[in-house]
Amino acid sequence: MAQPVVKAGRSGRPLLRGASSLLPWLLPVLIILLWQFGASLNLVSPRIFPSPLKVLTDAWNLIESGALFDHLIVSLRRAFVGLAIGGGIGFVLGILNGLFPLSYKLFDSTIQMVRNIPHLALLPLVIIWIGIGEEGKIFLVSLGVLFPIYVNTYHGLRSVHPGFLEVGRVYGLNHWQTIRHIVLPGALPSIFVGLRYALGIMWLTLIVAETVNTTSGIGYLAMNAREFMKADIIIFSVILYALLGKLADLITKWLEHALLPWERSLRR
């Protein structure tokens, strides 16, 4: 009698997995349905808050004309060039300060003071010092992503379990072998947390940076739509930022699972 129950349980597991994978999208879909329902009842003026169908129609027109892809490519270039520069600097500083006490004493206090300055508040100074071109936008993105990656890289290096270091000494690993095979892999989970946090700040900074005297990018698309009171394009731009942020987070989680199989095993 017990055998059919086991089989039924196993056959039901794929359904449970499918339902579990769809569950995170339940709330966004529900919000869109309520939005469409409210728009169909004219609870709010369509000029101020257009329906999802109107937003989707105008988005499709942008896709057909090719304008959306042109703006998207520009925004992605700004975002990921800034991420590469700021993230690279933050990662190197985190490695240096996490491994070398002298470097920590020299740089960490200054980094912590600069970190507590809201980087978006520096926008007027960035315009004066660097200008309103691409360099200023990339600088702001770089500054925004630098500190999360630095802090989490440093924290990951300093938080490696002492037992792992003792195992390395037992196996006769020298200083650099211990860093390569134990310390850096042990710090990777914290580094990925910093990367995910930095990606959120990257999109937030880009939204602000692209509102300053630009002729391309998703932010320009929204600002240009504001001049003509096209709320549907503005809403679509906001949704597009949200989707790009979610996609970047999913890619980072996939990389984390691919590069840290032992971390997944420990969680189980």
General description of the model:
The chain has one domain: MetI-like fold (Orthogonal Bundle). It contains twelve helices and no strands. The chain has helices at residues 2-22, 26-40, 52-65, 67-99, 101-115, 123-129, 134-158, 162-170, 175-209, 218-227, 231-259, 261-267. Helix 10 packs antiparallel against helix 11 (231-259). It is flat.
Q: Which features characterize this protein?
A:
268 residues, 12 helices
What is the overall shape? flat
> Can you say what the CATH homologous superfamily is?
MetI-like
CATH-defined fold name: MetI-like fold
Which CATH top level class fits? Mainly Alpha
Q: N- to C-terminal separation?
A: 31 Å
Task: Point out poorly predicted stretches.
Answer: none
Structural class: mainly alpha
β-strand amount: under 5%
Could you give the order of the helices and strands? HHHHHHHHHHHH
Question: Cα-atom Rg, whole angstroms?
Answer: 24 Å
Measured as a percent range, the helix fraction is over 70%
Main beta sheet: none
